[in-house]
Amino acid sequence: MLLSLTNVPRDYSWGSPTLLAGLEGRAPSGAPEAEVWFGDHPGDPADVAGGGTLDAVTGGTLPYLLKLLAAGGPLSIQVHPTIDQARDGWAREAGLAPDDPHRNYRDDNHKPELIVALTERFEALSGLRPVAETLRMLDALGDARGVASLRARLDGTGDVLRGAIGWLLADATQGEVDEIIAATRTAAHAGAGEWEPVLRAVVGVADAFPGDPGVVVALLMNHVVLRRGEGIFLRAGLLHAYLGGLGVEIMAASDNVLRGGLTPKHIDVPELLSILDTTTDAVPVLRPDSEGAITSYPVPIADFALRRVTLTGPPLTIDVAGPAMVLSTAGDVVVTGVDAVEHPVAIGAAVFASADEGSLQLTGTGEAFIATPGALRPSPRPATRR
Questions:
Q1: In the Cβ-directed half-sphere of 351, how many Cα atoms lie within 13 Å?
Q2: pLDDT the model gives residue 290
Q3: 262, 241 in Cβ contact below 8 A?
Q4: I need a labelling partner for 165 at 20 to 30 A (CA). Which of 55, 113, 316, 351 fits?
Q5: Is the pLDDT of residue 132 over 70?
């Protein structure tokens, strides 16, 4: 069974007013358009052509959530729980209303995610930089009181990054935060050699969120720039924030977010610190193959897999295991299933294929992304998982 899917863009404040409209070839709506969800999560299940929503078809058991994401400015600095942390947090908050602003856990699932850039530049903060490198970067910021306080917290023993982030979000004075931001701005404008790109990125964050302690948290993170077709996988516990660009995002079917700044929403510092992974390593960029019509983005989890398909005219038959989606991102894409009925897919829309399809034929000239459960198949999840 094939079903055509659409959805209305979500109007989060960080959304771009132009990127989704440009992708789809339509006039901008005049409002920020941040995300389009293609999934069965109750927060915003996809609309099925002819009426109804996808959750009525799947029973709410799809293990992944596929999105178009259009960042016109920085998203909140955030981290997602492991599945055990999510189940524990969900149980602890059982007495809170679903829309309680102090709720941390919206469901009992983990939320590892992968994003692949559709724009020629997609900018992000991802993971924590090694402390020795950050101390070297702080040398470019001078000796303002706030900078000295941050340096002292990092120049120690033990889990200094967890301590520094806790200090910034809970105990640092506004004066110290402002001094660090001012020193960052001065160093970026003066030219800071190897650190200039990251400092300029942080200045852009400061312009969007003046005086926010999350701006200084951003100084501790790796600055990543993706080119079109490149992706990054974000594991549980990894601190991250997208800064700008359009991409295809896929994640486990969850809406669990613990925030660490750059947002007016609830920030629970102790809970954030309890799930934060302070391992300092670069997040590898997943680059597409130079040849071939199909690019895979391998990820070490069972909930989802994502492939990019480039169509040049001849039909491609692609095996799909489990419920699949085909999202069109360029050109003219047509999907055909076992019933031999052709389903044209408009750019920015998707087709859902039930698990009994087994394979799909794609024709046309353009680009599409195919989402499926991962190669390590997840156990079936109950419809009451959230």
A1: 25
A2: 65
A3: yes
A4: 113
A5: yes
Q: Residue 145 catalytic?
A: no
Whole-angstrom Cα distance, residue 29 to residue 219? 34
Q: Is the pLDDT of residue 345 over 90?
A: yes
Report d(CA 172, CA 184) in Å as an integer.
17
Q: Under CATH, what is the fold of the domain 9-125+225-271?
A: Jelly Rolls (2.60.120)
Helices in 81-123 by DSSP H: which ranges? 83-92
**Cα 209 from Cα 222, distance rounded (Å):** 19
Residue 71's pLDDT is: 98
Question: What is the DSSP track for 3-16?
Answer: EEEE-PPB--TTBB
Please, what sign has the CA dihedral across residues 141, 146, 150, 155?
A: positive
63-87 pLDDT, tens digit each: 999 999 999 999 999 999 999 999 9
- CATH superfamily, domain at 294-372: Jelly Rolls (2.60.120.10)
Average predicted confidence (pLDDT) for the chain: 93
Q: Which residue out of 235, 259, 307, 308 is catalytically annotated?
A: 259
